[in-house]
Sequence to fold (329 residues):
Amino acid sequence: MRRDVTKGDLPALILAVLADSACHGYGIARRIEQQSAHALQMKEGSLYPALRVLEQDGLIAGEWEVQPSGPARKVYRITANGLLQLKEKQQEWEQYARTMSAILGRKTDAQPA
Amino acid sequence: MHSRLEQYLQTVEQNLHALPAEERHNEVNEIRLHMESLVEANIELGSTEEEAITQTLAQFGRAQNVGKELTSAHQWGDKPQFGTLAKAIAFNFFGGNVASLLISQPFMLAFTPSGVPAVFWMFRGLLTTFCVGWLTGALLPRHAVKGTLYAHLIGASICTIDILLGTLPFMSRISTLSFWSFQLIGTIIGTGIAMGGAKLGARWRSRRVQKMRIAG
Fold:
């Protein structure tokens, strides 16, 4: 199964990745890819507008940091407000998944007409 | 760097023209580093350099969209906030008038010697306009520039209606053509200065918030 990440889901995925550890833009894209076992794909250019909105809302903080090898990169960290927002998103998602499976799960028992 | 990637970044940068030069540079630099890493990764997976660049460009999406969405994220956030926009318009509109009438006029009349050149009075008006624009930017950064523009357009429209209805007493003393020319030029200059003030105020606020986040 391969699915495109929608713009609405991207902020929550970014927060989830950053909750594990701080990361730069390229790293965030790779971690989403790896953690979804390559099932989720996105236009990587859409990552930066989403990062900017999260930054402005105070959910993440980005800072240019010198790397051990190579040039300085902007590294993002989740803030306390970001963690709260992530928790809310997780609860919303669990509720949505329960609702969907309550409807879709029953359909497998149905008999054809 | 490869010319196709350079061209892509140039298109992104062109679509970021509304942002200050420093922010534009940072955005392009960040995307450049991401693209370079992606090209390297694609080469490691067995692609030739040309193939790796083609894959990278496809993975990133259209440069115009990236630039426009980034500008939009910087300036207005992802959701329109009409309440904040209304506040920015009201603050600019009423703030400008209150500052001009209550603070600027009596203060300047009391402390300015008579016989000062006309250009001084014009400068005073523009300074007030700039300060109100700057305050709007500092207090309501997201919609300050747009709010300032709308407030000035509303002000110019009210003034125009007022003039057309003939309620301004000095109309008879000056020629219509010179009056309208003065009105138009004054509106353009005043709006430009106020919007510049709003942009600077918003930038000041953004830097302050950034510093506080780093410190906290």
User: Anything to note?
Assistant: Residues 105 and 111 of chain A are 14 Å apart (CA to CA).
